[in-house]
Protein 1
Amino acid sequence: MTVATRRSVLRDSVETHTTNVLALARPTSVVQRDLKAARWCVLAEDIASPLDLPPFDNAAMDGYALRAQDIPAGGGVLPVRGDIPAGPRAPTCLAPGTAQRIMTGAPVPDGADTVVQVEWTDAGTETMTVRRCPPRGANIRQAAHELRRGDLTLRGGTVLTPTRLAMLAAVGVRDVPVHRRPRVAVLTTGSELVSPGAPRPAGGVYDSNATMVAALLEQDGSVATELGHLPDDEDLLLDALLGAVADHDLLITVGGISAGAYEVVRQALTPLGCMRFLSVAMSPGGPQGLGVLGTTPVLALPGNPHGCARLLPRVRASPAAGLSGAPRPDAALAPVGSHRIAGAASRGHAFCAWSGEPRGGHRARWGRRRGASPDGLCRRRLPAAHRPRSATGAGGRHCAGTRPVTEANRPTDKLEPTDRLARGEEPLCWD
């Protein structure tokens, strides 16, 4: 088998690679957490409402509780017989031909069937004049209108966002069973890496991957541990990974997996027979690896920050969601950075980039636009007249197909080729 044939056999689609990574993940253990500690955790089982919501008929507006039949359609005057503020109180009863002043959220008195908002009255306290009366039942939140006792409130597998936590709190739930947050170890490799803030020697580059990967994982609800960066030393790498296996649910390495020399991750883990190193059908970011060390899944990402950032929002969701018990979300957006892509102009694809230069640098995003493929990466070929002049531009900038974007022109087929992004312009990205 030739080298070219072997490479084609190991070239997986993005969807296939994401599926294979997800297959490695297992749900974490279930623990009880109060709502404050459960934010961004994954619910382990269905939660039924222990009460009706709302638990009683209550006013949706500040105004007056009354019987609709006591006020003509054109308005009228009624005596006011007391106030009903929000809060615990004994049930009250409304006498026919009277009104009671009522505040938002307060229980509607027995006998009342309508609340007139205060803006439609003279706001009187002894008597009140209604300028017009709303229909019967207006401005009253009926008991059990949202949920009845025993109704499903949230399904197991739901990520507990702030609004979902509020829903649980509204029905009186304090503690919930959730999957423990996945513990993920992040290890970057490369003798050239330098920690941000440290003096940078000649030939050194600052390690941006560790910060990015950890931030993306924590955004998903994982607990990320940065193990630091290691030089190109196989023994040091194995020691670090084996030391992290027992305390983590997932190991992520960054860098050292390409086909060249000094690829420390590939060289250290290949002899163990626990990893599969392959090429994914994307550029940049093709080199990838996945496997299991002991019983802990390992995900090997490329060292190119832009390639890592393109795929990670999809792939990171798989192990993190699988380990925590949630279904894999569909990652529609992923940043892509400036990268020289050979033959881009000849293939007729528009590549957008971002520059780290402070003057006018702007991050591009792959987005779901008209013509997008199911994985969220747009792949519309540009007409010849609109193809980029060059894959790279002056100063490393090579943005093609950019112009100011408005709601009126957002779903357009025409792009103006350019080599630069002006400040305030948003790239329209097609791959």
Protein 2
Amino acid sequence: MNLSTCTPGQRQSIEHVSGPLLVSAGAGSGKTFTLTQRIAYALLPESGPAAGGIDEVLAITFTEKAAAEIKARVKRTLRAEGMCEEALKVDAAWISTIHGMCARILRAHALDLGLDPAFGIMGDAERAEAVADAIDGALGDDNDIIARGSYAALFDEYPARSTMPLAPSVASMLQALMDKAAGLRGGLDALDFGPSPAQASTLARELLLAYEGVLPALERALAENSMRLTAIGTGRAYVNHGLSITDPDETRRRAAVQRLEAFLELAGRLHATVIIGCMRGNVATAEELPAALDRLAVSMEYLDQTAAKAGVDIVFEPINRYENNFLCTMEEISHFIRSHSLTNTGILIDTFHMNIEESDMMASIEACSPEIRYVHFSDSNRWYPGAGHTDMAGILRKLQECGYQGVLSADILPKPTKEAAARGWIEAVSAMIRE
């Protein structure tokens, strides 16, 4: 083989046929020429020969077009070197894309693998279309989930599809899951979905058992510091576990009620109040609100009776519309409590939420004062009083005028630091009380 026209680097690459070789070169530097010459050189006697025939050569390319070009060049080179018989075998050589090589291996062993030897390779566009069709088949044409099953809570939280490209939906999550599986060796079988979640009733029992272990230490710590636990928040049960006492699914709704029963039993031991805020859940559409309110009434009537047996109060918190989308004002909560004769349920007012939802905060306090049993006292920015624009001193005076003698709680952000926030709240409230 005449290599006189090759550059020193090309010649060195062509003649290196023993051991690994890495060639890194820019566009137009003759990489394809070097590769085809190296394949031909490995078949010539002067190389040893390094390969006993073209069927011992494996060359992988990025595209089918590139594979065809290499084959054509190898054939021309072999003919020029008088190896016409070997040139005839090039079309059947292992020179292809990675997909082509894998398909060839699978086809050769198709019957052993239980495959149809006539199978085809699906391209990216075809795959995307097939996945989209499969997702459409699961979701239905009218965005109604065909089989909700154990994923009902997911479908209640997210729409089947979204018109916004970046907005989460069941379809987008399925697409992401399929894309992830496509990159794994075992496909969907390789995905680890983790252990099945524990039943909420089991978690409730475990919660009580966990507190049994720490309860004596907690009680001692409270006594030693002349403190008492005034309330137990429950919102994480909704945020972290999706438990809501208005859930359309009866099993999950019962689990949410059981979780609150556990909190009420614990509150009875600690003489604390139980807060219900986020656990009322959200409604997907305005049309669903009446049914959600009916479910809420059934749940709350039962929990109100449970609270009475435990000797504790429940306080229902009006939360702003951006976090919970119904029962957002004090008037709405008060009306709900009175309509269902919930004698052991009162209102928790949160001045941060009031600043968003109440058109007249003072008037709302006065109108609902009989039901107010707990107060989250923070400024308009959720900092300690005085850091925002709410008339905190005026709210305190109004509460005193209405005869409120319950807890003022520092439900504030730990800013600028936890210590500074706590000190700022205590100093501000103490000053207001002294006035």
Protein 3
Amino acid sequence: MMARATTVRVNISDIVQARFDSQGPHFVSPLGIEMRRVMVVGHVVRSIQSKKEREYASIILDDGTDTVQVKAWDSDLKKLNLVRNVEEGVLVLVIGKIKQSGQQDIYIEPEIIRRLTDPNYITLHILERLRGLIVLSDVPSRGRSLSDIESVESLTTGDAPIVLSATKTSTKTRTSEPISPSVSSNVSEGSNKTRESQVFEFIRQQAARKGDGRGVDGKDIIEFFVAKGFTKTEVNLYIIDLLDAQKIREVSVSKYLPCDL
């Protein structure tokens, strides 16, 4: 079985300006990064659907650096439904493979499309892309973490300065289901990989305790781990990584269950 391609966070301009390398095959960004499977964040500026010869749907994403189409056909109804259910004007996260038809038309074949409600996520995506470039370029980044990145006050990409204002997660008590003490005692600090596993184990144990199949609320996940010293950004990224690895699934908006339940 072929190994799953690594997901690379990119700007849309990285895709549009990429060159195709037939020895792979893969696309290479202007910065020399290999891209097969990518993650982009952008606003949906147009939605297109057609039923002429075969059913087809497309959305056009704009992230401020360029625009790209996300396309699907009726040969894969799951992907087709992903695309045609997206409304114009919303902010979305898309994970998928880069494809090319003809010599010029580069597009994304989607695997995951998720609507985002927090406009600050696009800033997070830009920062994570920059961190990914450092890692992929083998530039030493000893001691750096997501919390370090969140503390950055400003940076410049191209000609546009991006001013960051750190948003702290509120830890006020909300009206929600209590978290089992046994779950709390089984979750402890550790490495980043262990921390992702902790998020997964929390979701698994909470889902088993509830037993109603409705999923674990994302707000409860974030609130629990923020209280243990995680940042909201970390928890959101771990949830996305778990979804991406198909360890958990979203049963309704921000409600998660392990894929084997």
